[in-house]
Each structure stands twice: as C-alpha cells, then as structure tokens.
Amino acid sequence: MSKLYRYIHLPISLALLMTTLSYAQPDLTTPIDFSLLHSHDTSYRFVTQTFNQPAPQLDTTDENTQELAKLATPRNYQVWLAIPEGYDSSKPANVLYLLDGNGVLDDLQEATLRDLTPGNSAASTDRKQPPILVLIGYQTPYRFDVAARAYDYTPPLLTSTGINTAFQEAGRARLNGGAETFYTLIEDEIKPWVAQRLGTAPASEAIWGHSYGGLFVLYTLLKHPEAYQNYYSADPSLWWQDGEMTQYWQAYQASFAAQPIPQGVNKQSPRKTIRLTFSGDTATVASRAAAISEPVTAVADQQAMTPADQDKQRFAKEVCQHFVTQQQAECSYQQYKQSHGELFTSSLLDTLKRFK
Question: Is the pTM of this model over 0.90?
C-alpha cells in the first residue's frame, strides 16, 4: 500500500510512477541564449547577483557518509532581477520569484516582457506597476544544474531531525533533502537583496516552480505558508519518495486543525492565491480546468482519464478544498494536454499573464 493511499487516500498508480520516470531528459549540452539580458527592446532592465552555499552537512554517524560526501558539493547561484522601465520605488510592486531561472531566461521572449508593461504603466498614477521578476538560477551556461536543483528543491524527509537532512536520491548519484536550506537562502539573502535593489518592500510576493521546483512550491506553502501570497506549482513531482509530499500535506492539515482559535477571531492565514497545473496523457487528456466551486469534470470525462491523471486531479481538488473552505484562499487547477517538459514553458507564460 503506497504512502499516498495511507495518508490521503489517493492511490498512486504504477502508470503515474512510470510516466514520471520516463520523462525526456532536459538538454544539458546546449548553452542557453543570454541575449535577452542585453536587449533594449524588453521594457525591463536586468540586475544580476551571485549567491553561494557550502556543501550540505552530513550526518557523520551514518555508515554511508563517505559515499554521500562524494555527492555533497557547494551550490552556486545566479540571480537575475528584472526591473521594469520607469519603476518608481515610492510605489511598492508585486514580486514574482521564478525557480530554474536559467530555463526561464531561455524561454522568455522580448514580446513577453513588453506585454507586462503596456503603455509604461509604471509612469501612470492610476495603474499599478508592472511586476518585478526574480529569476533564481545557477552559475551554469545550461538550462539546469540537475544535481544542485535536486538537492535544493526536494524536502527533507518528515522523519529527519536536525540540520543533517541530505540523503541520496534512489537510483541517482545526487543528494535530496535541501529544501529548508534553500528556503532559508531565499528568505535571508535573496529577498533582502531584492528589497535593497528596489528601495522598498514589495506589495506582494509570489513563487513559481516546475517539477521538482513545483515540489518546492508545495513544500513552502505547507511548511511556511506566510512566505508568499501567491503560489504557482507546475506539474509537481508528487511521485517523489513514494508520495512523501502527501505526508507533508497530511501533517499540515493536522497542524492546522490543532491550532487554537482565539475567541472572536476566524482561523485563517493572510489571503492566498494558489494555482496547480499538471501535464496529462497527450493521447487521452483534453485541456480542462476547474475551480473548487465547480465539478472537476463530467463523469464521462473522468472515465476517459488515465489513473495517473485522476490521481493528480484528486490531489489538487483536496488541496483546493482545504484552502478555499478553511482559509478563504483562491485556488484553481488545470490539466493540459502536454508533456511534462512542455508544461514548463506554458505554465510559466500562464503565470506571467495571471500575475501581472
């Protein structure tokens, strides 16, 4: 019996696991196009900064420490801050943090950025400023640093204690379990740098991530729900560690239910917007969207879905039900007739349209 079924009654099917593990590997041999950083036709200017983290600390009492030490390497980050032309520091702006920043930079087009700043709205007194974009990437010429992101974006196991949370990913020569350390880096170093460059605190903050990045978005939502007002999780790797994220979901619900409610006060966090997007079996899944106030799909449509697609939708529905009914959040989910890799770009563009 899988952890998903034991904890939230969502049966993870073999089809989901096999489909996820068979996703096409990203291209790690072709350097990305950095020309957007120097373009004068985007309505944005880019400021860059590097950040560094030491190699993960390991549990020296673990009999596998020597083997893990070979995988424990420092992480070197490249962060690009995109500021719209005409930005006015006297007007707090909305800030969107984008994981896998190298891939985001590779996918962004000049026209996409121009669409975020119609009529140079920052110069207008009656319109809000265009969004600030923070691309959190790595010091590599390629779309992904797969080893670094595998550690940064994956949560420590719920059974972990202390700071020594790193463990080897099953079947792969890389570490997992560094999400809390990465969260701390963003909160303690990256966010303060962004605020210093902008000259003011943001009006609101959002985070977007895909795959393991989507897993990190869910981890942050459940572990540090106050960190952002908007959460965009694209095809999160729910299969990871046999459904470990669903244990976090169960623990979050239990913790929320146990919180005391002061007399006369509604138990709710600051209002959030949550959006979950998923890839689907391109042979059977039509594009579909659902708000929590609507049925997921018609019964006939449900029957046409694969077990893997149904698992994703059930998870999304349960998350949305909680945040809408218990915390008055806005929550929606959508399944695309796209592959896992294709959803990186389409979800990114969808998020930019929604967040602006």
Answer: no
